[in-house]
Amino acid sequence: MMTPNTQTHSAPQPPRPRIAARRPELPFEGGPIPRHWFGGSALATHIINGVNLLFPDGERMFVKSVRYYKDAIANDPMLAKEAAGFYAQEGSHAREHQRFFEILRDQGYPVDDILVEFRASLRFFEKVFPPAFHLSATAAAEHFTAIMANHALTERVLDEAHPTVRHLLLWHATEEIEHKAVAFDVLAKVEPSYLVRVVGMAFAALFLAYWWQRATRMFLRHDGIGRAALRAEREKLKQVRDDGGIVKNVFLAGIKEYLKPGFHPWDRDDLHLAQEYLAETGMDASPAH
Length: 289
Prior knowledge:
Layout: H1 42-67, H2 77-106, H3 111-128, H4 131-155, H5 163-178, H6 182-190, H7 194-222, H8 227-240, H9 246-258, H10 271-280
Helix pairs in contact: 1-2, 1-3, 1-4, 1-7, 2-5, 2-6, 4-5, 4-6, 4-7, 4-9, 5-10
């Protein structure tokens, strides 16, 4: 019988992807990107701008939390190789999202103010909590990015987005799917505790929700969108893409899925979604091994 502090998981079923960083050609300098680049909706645009702000520093923290256990996974060549690919992909994501920040700055958004606060919160988290907790929060956050990636690729929620931003987000989504199990597998190897996994998920969910809404509100406030205007934006968003059930059907369902004692990220076999988009765009489909 499984005890409360023991983490068990089923063996991954689909082929494990070869995880390697790509360098997408994102022509941010090739022409103006509209201020409200998602179907003309300020709300839809800023919901995504808000989470975009969290990616570079958040992903550097993810890399640090996994890299801390580099020696502990050295005796598992497959996992060590996947971890190296994870570092490379996350570094590439951080670099490309930071290029997009320059567009936001040029549009007059005070992104650096909130980035200073966000980075301070990450440093506090790193200082106060032990490495195993950092890794647990990373594994949970990677689950969130993976289910968002799955949703974006299956539901085509970004069809109305500006093509350059759409490609940034969908390329990012494909690689999040490819490496979605790495932090989880390292956690299972070095700290196989169900309790640690659950606490990491609780922290990651609250931390993400807090900073995502903070960043989104900053963008909306800077555009002068108050309550009345926000109601109008919500109606406009429904016309662009009615995702009213995303919190319940994606995030809450994803948390429930993650908290199953036998959960493993590859229980959801969606590697084909990444491969199909990469093939469609002419990028390396990263064949499985």
